[in-house]
Amino acid sequence: MSLERDPQRVDVAIIDSGGANLASLQYALDRLGARSIVSDQPAVIAAAPRVLLPGVGAAGDAMRRLRGTGLDRLIPQLRVPLLGVCLGMQLLYRHSAEGDTACLGILGARVGRLDASPARPVPHMGWNTLELLGEDPLLRGIGAGDYFYFVHGYAAPVDACTLAATRHGEPLAAVVRRDNFRGVQFHPERSAAAGARILRNFLDL
Prior knowledge:
alpha/beta, 6 helices, single chain, 31% strand, four-stranded mixed β-sheet, eight-stranded mixed β-sheet, 205 residues, Rossmann fold, 23% helix
């Protein structure tokens, strides 16, 4: 697509998974002095020193797009730091209840739909703090009082891969990691200074 830049001079490749937050993520990286490229080309993604997997929309649509370009096979083989954002984090899991969708299988749990109640509408939209459960360079400088912006109707369970949790009724995974793959359920590009810190930490990996 037209947002692509010189792949020889990038700090981050942003996977074009069809979401609406591509430009805002690229702008957030620009503000941090990082050079980024938006692409759905496996050769571009494979050559990048870091990879962002964003996502806004439905899991089924995003996975069909990844399968159509062969990125569903490439992404699990990457050895560079990869950060999934919102739906992009959910795609790292084995399965999503949204559309009964088989995902990338990097994380073994299943993503389920949030339970709605009069006090807790779904989708979950708003600012939440994190409960820090583990240490990781991605969370350097992040405290329990920092707020992050969430917009989602599905969520992953808290398990051994969870670095930080949040609550919308029950606890849910907010930051996860397995090897070089990390994910955040919130939108760092919309989370003010705390979100910028997460992106800065990712660039420092």
